[in-house]
Design brief:
Blueprint (H helix, E strand, L loop, with lengths): L4 E5 L11 H4 L4 H14 L4 E5 L3 H14 L2 E5 L8 H8 L5 E5 L21 E4 L3 H15 L1
Parallel strand pairs: 1-2, 1-3, 3-4, 4-5
Helix pairs in contact: 2-5, 3-4
Bound molecules: ligand CA2.
Length: 145
């Protein structure tokens, strides 16, 4: 069995499915986890699926992925727009990185148009709701081979 694909989610995504369904959909983060797990299993991978509201904890998990992951999917949420710390950690991770977003930040407010995380990602999947995560897992598996 290859090393797992890490799937990390940033701040407030624990609230998924409880508010703003017109933007983020009705799936909960647990629903998203199940969808990612099913897609990864079909591709021969396990996943490590985690969410944190804390920037430093996300940095710790990205550093952990350097040793323990085949590839990394990250929805950095608002930290994507602000965090040089996440960018620095991702630049050092040494495994393929796929950025994902439920919504399409490029079609939203101007402050969402810039992503530090994009500077360290091979690619970006955005705008497809929970399916963005599944597609990102598939892309990550393809990059990991
Ligand atoms: O579209 C995405 O996945 C985002 O990463 C979500 C972030 C936002 O800051 C990014 O610009 C785009 C916000 C996550 C907040 O998630 C919530 C979900 C349900 C209810 C409240 C917040």
């Amino acid at each position: 069995m290859p090393k797992p694909i890490y799937v990390l989610s940033g701040p407030n995504l624990n609230l998924l499915g409880t508010r703003e369904p017109e933007i983020y959909g009705r799936d909960t983060l647990e629903d998203v986890r199940k969808r990612c797990e099913a897609r990864a299993t079909s591709l021969g991978y396990e996943i490590v699926f985690r969410q944190s509201n804390h920037e430093g904890e996300l940095v710790d998990w990205i550093q952990e992925a350097r040793e323990k992951a085949s590839a990394l999917v990250i929805n950095p949420a608002a930290y994507g727009h602000t965090s040089v710390a996440l960018l620095d950690a991702l630049k050092a991770v040494g495994v393929p990185v796929v950025e994902c977003h439920l919504s399409n930040p490029a079609a939203r407010e101007a402050f969402r148009h810039h992503s530090y995380v994009s500077l360290a990602a091979t690619g970006l999947v955005s705008g497809f709701g929970a399916a963005s995560y599944e597609l990102a897992v598939e892309a990550a598996a393809g990059l990991a081979r």
